[in-house]
Amino acid sequence: MILRDVIVPGHGSGDLHVVDGRVQAFDQRPPSDTQRIVMPQLVEAHCHLDKCHTLHRLADVGGDLTSAIAAQLEDKVNWTEADIWARAGRGISELVEAGCGLARSHVDWGNTSAPPLAWSVLEDLCSDRSDEIDLQLAALVNIAALEDPDCAMSIARRIAETGGALGTFLLDHAEPRQSLINMFDAASRFGIALDFHVDEGLMPGLHGVELIADVALEHGFDGPILCGHACALMNLRRDDFDRVSEKLALAGIFVATLPTTNLYLQGRTEGTPDRRGLTRVRELTDAGVQVVVGSDNVADAFCPLGQHDPMAALNLAVLTGHLDPPFDRWLPLITTNAARALGQKPPALVGTSIDTLILSDARNPAELVSGRCGPPRRVHTLSEAAQ
Ligand SMILES: [Zn+2]
Predict the structure, then answer these.
(1) Which helix (H) or strand (E) segment is 39 a member of?
(2) Starting at the edge strand that comes first in sequence, how are the strands of the sheet with 357-360 ordered?
(3) What is the edge-to-edge ordering of all strands in the sheet holding 291-293?
(4) pLDDT tens, position by position, 151-173
(5) pLDDT given for residue 386 in this prediction
(6) Structural domains present in the chain
(7) 207-258 per-position pLDDT tens digit
(8) Which of 117, 79, 61, 46 is nearest to 334 (CA)?
């Protein structure tokens, strides 16, 4: 089978030769007016399937991050097994529909070493939907609970049963270093990834990203580390930013920008906002730090809108972060960079299974990111691929 006249972002235009369900060769030829795009399945690096689709029953939504945390907490009385299964299942269907083959969802863990109900339900869902999507879970543990090294070890041991990530929320906590050291020790012991919600604010005095980079460099941790939000990098002077980004690059730390929730919650004033809460996507990229884009919250207290769709998140990041064309440069934020941030090596084009490829009728990457052509389809479902 030959998929003729396609663009493969990062590889150019040409014909894709498929033999026995795998790409055998890509013959480059000049672009045409009728070409379509073939690319790897999208990767959702950061979402919250335990919280999604709760908006309709929340009384008071609106306000900043503190208000959102309080409103979401009130909803937890509704989090039965059936409720979580239905809402998270809807979120997974939306990810699959958007063309995702790999995703990581955070799950609120709380203060104890024992997992919450949502963790067990999501584990069952991961297994139930494993033929549609490779879904990882990241435990969002209260940082105070991680001050106890035994608790950190116990949680990491439980996470390792299904291969997820250990995470926490770090904002303006007084003495977070020991909790971070315990997290690195536990993740290293059980061979799992680390994932942080860090510096999700624009107030002065937030240095969580640099602290994580310092602990990572001291520890020599070799698993993937993903730092989500990092809004407060916007507060740094150029020389301070250069120091922090150098540490991030040296430690191989990925940074996730999460436009929807940050645009909604950050920089709130009496009137129209003038600070928007994105991290420094362009400067980090220029400094050699690998950046990813995630969807974050969908229809919950943190974001009343949102979509489980990395392409939509990239679209928003382009507009709000001034990520100029060509978009071949930015697509890795929701494909190859994001896969590496989740600990997976992106496959080379030649030899890859067509089960892992998607196709869009978009004629160029700008049209693809615009979303005008609708969600991409799975290549293996095409009649021409079945020949
Ligand atoms: Zn998040």
Answers:
(1) strand 36-40
(2) 22-28, 12-19, 2-8, 36-40, 357-360, 377-378
(3) 42-47, 100-110, 134-141, 165-170, 193-198, 225-229, 254-257, 291-293
(4) 999 999 999 999 999 999 999 98
(5) 44
(6) 2-41+348-381 (2.30.40), 42-341 (3.20.20.140)
(7) 999 999 999 999 999 999 999 999 999 999 999 999 999 999 999 999 999 9
(8) 46
Contact in structure between 138 and 167 (CB atoms under 8 Å): yes
Q: How far is the CA of 286 from the centre of ligand 1 (A)?
A: 25
In angstroms, the first-to-last Cα distance of the chain is: 6
Ligand 1 mean position, distance from CA 102 (Å)? 17
Give the pair of three-digit tokens for residue 152: 């950190």
pTM higher than 0.90 for the full model?
A: yes
Distance 336 CA to ligand 1 centre (A): 20
Q: How far is the CA of 17 from the centre of ligand 1 (A)?
A: 40
Q: Other C-beta atoms within 10 Å of 111: how many?
A: 11
> d(Cα 298, Cα 8) in Å, to the nearest integer?
30
Which tokens in the block code for residue 109? 């863990």
Q: Is the pLDDT of residue 259 over 70?
A: yes
**Computed from CA positions of residues 363, 368, 372, 373, in that sequence, does the dihedral angle turn out positive or negative?**
positive
Mean pLDDT score across all residues of the chain: 95
Q: Which amino acid is at 287?
A: A
CA of 200 to the centre of ligand 1 (A): 9
Does the pLDDT of residue 189 top 70, yes or no? Answer: yes
Q: How far apart are CA 191 and CA 136, in angstroms?
A: 14
